[in-house]
Amino acid sequence: MTEAKKARRLANRRVAAIAVAVSVLAAAGATVFACGDHHHRMSPERLRKIVSWKVDDLLDEVDADDSQRLEIEGIAGEITEDFLAIHADRDRHRETILEELGRGDPDGDLLHERLDEKLDTIGSFAHRTLDRLLDAHALLTGEQRAILSEHVREHMEDH
């Protein structure tokens, strides 16, 4: 196999992994925010169940073996717990911002600082999630990755 072909294959794998990461992040975020408003927040247990169901469905679709299931379910659990830890901090952030905006002369520097903190937190989460998804990606066969990539492609076209 030529170096150019190897590089294209590696690039295709990275694109597929990033697509999966974006899809998982979008699904987790949409699930939390669409199903949980200020008065009816989704419980962490409910989110864990939904993520588990979605992951199980995807593993069924790619016909994952028991070893793959165990590893990937563990990875999905780590991502979910990481997301929940970040999400739990949102009330503190929201209160700080609302309190500051309620003042006659809000401190723009403080608001920018809070925004930067949140963006750093979300960026770090996204990087950790991508690393975990790359670990999951490495557990799948080429055929399974192709099935999953097609599933992600169809999901992204629908949304």
Account of the 3D structure:
85% of the residues lie in helices and 0% in strands. With 159 residues, the chain is mainly α. It has one domain. Helix 1 packs across helix 6 (142-158). Mean pLDDT is 83; it is low at 30-39.
Give a quick summary of the entry.
The chain is 85% helix and 0% strand.
Task: Give the rounded overall mean pLDDT.
Answer: 83
Total number of strands: 0
The shape is elongated
Radius of gyration, in angstroms, nearest whole number: 19 Å
Quaternary state of the chains: single chain
Q: Would you tell me the structural class of the helices and strands? A: mainly alpha
State the share of residues found in helices, binned by percent. Answer: over 70%
Q: Characterize the biggest β-sheet.
A: none
Q: Distance between the terminal alpha carbons, to the nearest Å?
A: 37 Å
The total tally of domains equals 1
Give the number of helices: 6
Order of helical and strand elements = HHHHHH
Sequence stretches where pLDDT stays below 50 over 5 or more residues: 30-39
* Percent in strands: under 5%
SSE map:
Elements: H1 3-35, H2 44-61, H3 66-88, H4 90-101, H5 108-139, H6 142-158
Helix pairs in contact: 1-5, 1-6, 2-3, 3-5, 4-5
Task: List the keywords.
159 residues, mainly alpha, 0% strand, elongated
